[in-house]
Amino acid sequence: MRAIRRFTVRPVLPDGLAALGELAANLRWSWHAPTQELFAAVDPERWDAVGHDPVRLLGEVSPQRWAELAADEQFAARLAQLRADLTSYLTGERWYQRAAAADPEGTWPRSVAYFSPEFGITAVLPQYSGGLGILAGDHLKAASDLGVPILGVGLFYRHGYFKQSLSRDAWQLESYPVLDPDGLPLSLLREPSGEATTISIRLPEAELHAHVWVASVGRVPLLLLDTDLEENPEHYRMVTDRLYGGNTEHRLRQELLLGVGGVRALRAYSRITGAPEPEVFHTNEGHAGFLGVERIRELVDAGDTDVATALEAGRASTVFTTHTPVPAGIDRFPRHLVEQHLSVAVPGVPVEQVLALGAEDYEGGDPGVFNMAVMGFRLAQRANGVSQLHGHVSRGMFNGLWPAFDEAEVPITSITNGVHAPTWVAPELSALAAAQGGDPDDDDHASFWAALAQAPAQEVWRTKRLLRERLVADARRRLRESWDKRGAAPAELGWIAEALDPDVLTIGFARRVPSYKRLTLMLRDPARLKALLLDPARPVQLVVAGKAHPADEGGKRLIQELVRFADAEDVRHRIVFLPDYDISLALPLYPGCDVWLNNPLRPYEACGTSGMKAALNGGLNLSILDGWWDEWYEPEFGWPIPSAESPALAGDPDRRDDLEAAALYDLIETEIAPRFYDTDADGVPGRWVEMLRHTWAALGPKVLATRMVRDYVAQLYAPAAGNARALAATGRGAAELADWKARVRAGWSGVRVEHVEPHGVGDAAEVGSEIEVHAYVALGDLSPADVEVQLVHGRVDAEDALVAPSVTPLTLVESYDGNRHRFDGTVALARSGPFGYTVRVLPTHPLLVAPAELGVVAFA
Ligand SMILES: *Cc1c(COP(=O)(O)O)cnc(C)c1O
């Protein structure tokens, strides 16, 4: 029988233990080991049985056990202490408060809104599919640790992302268990009257309504919109059914809800709680981009603001982060569908102007398409990629939006991702760091990494073995469960008790399975892989996990290929595929591995973060030089797999895979395994442990999400808030900037470099000499204050193209009739060899971020 309705009855905790409910209601427990230990102590067996879910645990404790705990003074003391610790964490001054007070400019925002289609915070709240969501979760957690006043905005998916299992013949199966928000650490946003707050958006057929769930991520509120309400038509109730499911129209509705509905939810939250209105809006990937359109609508509807002015106000305070160099990873909607929806959803903004924001009106663009990333760049004054290499690739990929500029000047910067150490570092390693003087209560655990690097080699190695052992136990449990579902009889499964070995060199590989990540590269030469796994003296074992998108048949075939290999009797004790890669699998996986393998097709991995988590847990990376590894690789941190991405192999992906796989096997055979097994009399591999120490000391502090969030604050949030305040200060700032831009664009055809005169050296230039340049420039309807005239100079190649040139601004020295002017400047010739220069004119305004922002330039 199926129930027609379901709900969850919340437990009533005994007097004196009510604080357990408070600890369970704030997700800080998910990265606070002492709180987890307290929950485990409530009922250790049940804690494991409920998958370390405090809310479920509290609902299932027996009355006798409650009675015992209520009488346990020691337990009461621990509970009181942890509750006090949470209060002080939530209310105390942290890095942000101290640093903001010390900032002379004082532009640190009072509040930042962070929009993302997914958030991976804990396995208990499965609202993520992979890296993007985990990053968003780590961003909020690190912001909380640092005291950054941020709010998250996302959707509450009734089925989250799918759970993966395998059929007998190794085909991926998907299931979508339903989540009941009443059984999760969420509370409903309510009006002062007690009624649930409702957010509404007009759509072509009917109004779409949503409730707002609030999760407390430490100090950070996370608002999640949910459309599963009785007042919605049936198909609208399904808008938030699944993450990345459904057809194009379904996705457009989800993104409208996230962007437009998200801003409305924030407004309601501030109105009800008195929280400050966000000064900066950060969109994590293009999916939430409609937030910028909604903010334009708000300003236009409030009166006497036109769209151009509202756009300037909105842009100044918006940050857009792009996450993928894979064109298929970018959301593009049919233009007519966007037109149909936006004309009703944000009626104050003329729909042609919305359509123009997402138009691919550049060379090679598709006129029938609305591109969310393109809109993201146009609605945000500040944009970034997620590693240096990805910044470079993104500038090239989106150069078409700024065609007059070289790639290096495309206004997309980069901030490299990081990971939240308290979530990802095994408690045993944190304890080891603390024993060496690392301070676990520090805002960003800054002292941990140097402390770990000081730990005695034997201690490090003993801990690593423990972590390997724990992974082996978890893997065996998961294998048994998986084979159970695959229909194996218990008698067939005796081998699982011997699967994997806590003393064997363990290599991990876990990620989503799009083709560029090349799950099966390791199978390129099966005989060679087998030889590595079964080497009698220096064996290797592999733990593999990953989900293919439900619609990706190719990805499922790769999983099948891998699982079939791993199923073979001769190797199954040395290579395992663990289904359902998620946070709960990831947590013991990273610490249990000695080597973390990543072999994407360069440069498609925008950043990658799993290798960072491995590094913090005493793992060495073995990876193609892509994403973060390209930026921070050092020989002491692991091994680069040489990438065979030469143009000569561009049409021959098979050959490229052959070469890269061969390099991978060689590295394992000749360098990695010999070093791992080169142990001293105590069984400790000295050289290996040295590498772990270097990794902790030198790489540890870089890969932290706290470093990343501080970079966002200093490089993007505070400057964005500064610009937004400058625009708001006079009440006319945004209108003036919009007028100025319109005037500059209209007058730009009159801007010309008429004549350039070199002075000083002639053909006899030598190192140390100077050249002086006089540039005569006509400005038409513009004035000298509207422009900067620059001398662009440096090395030239055989075609006279300037290579990574320098820029020297020229100064106005004389004006003539007809709005003509002379600008002068000098450069010293610092280097021998071919040298060249040119002169260009760019618009300039104190509130522009980059010279390329308007896209216009005039050259000599
Ligand atoms: C860290 C993590 C990811 C992202 O890892 P990448 O290296 O970016 O692929 C995906 N899923 C889970 C469960 C993770 O913990």
TrEMBL record:
Family annotation (Pfam families): DUF3417, Phosphorylase
Residue(s) carrying N6-(pyridoxal phosphate)lysine: 613
Cofactor: pyridoxal 5'-phosphate
Record keywords, A-Z: Allosteric enzyme, Carbohydrate metabolism, Glycosyltransferase, Pyridoxal phosphate, Transferase
Residue ranges of domain DUF3417 in the record: 13-125
Top-rank taxon, per record: Bacteria
GO biological process, one term: carbohydrate metabolic process
GO MF terms held by the record: glycogen phosphorylase activity; pyridoxal phosphate binding
Reaction(s) catalysed (UniProt annotation): [(1->4)-alpha-D-glucosyl](n) + phosphate = [(1->4)-alpha-D-glucosyl](n-1) + alpha-D-glucose 1-phosphate
Keyword Nucleotidyltransferase among record annotations: no
Gene3D superfamilies: Glycogen Phosphorylase B (3.40.50.2000)
EC number: 2.4.1.1
Described function: Phosphorylase is an important allosteric enzyme in carbohydrate metabolism. Enzymes from different sources differ in their regulatory mechanisms and in their natural substrates. However, all known phosphorylases share catalytic and structural properties.
UniProt record similarity statement: Belongs to the glycogen phosphorylase family.
Record-given protein name: glycogen phosphorylase
Species: Nocardioides faecalis
Gene designation per UniProt: glgP
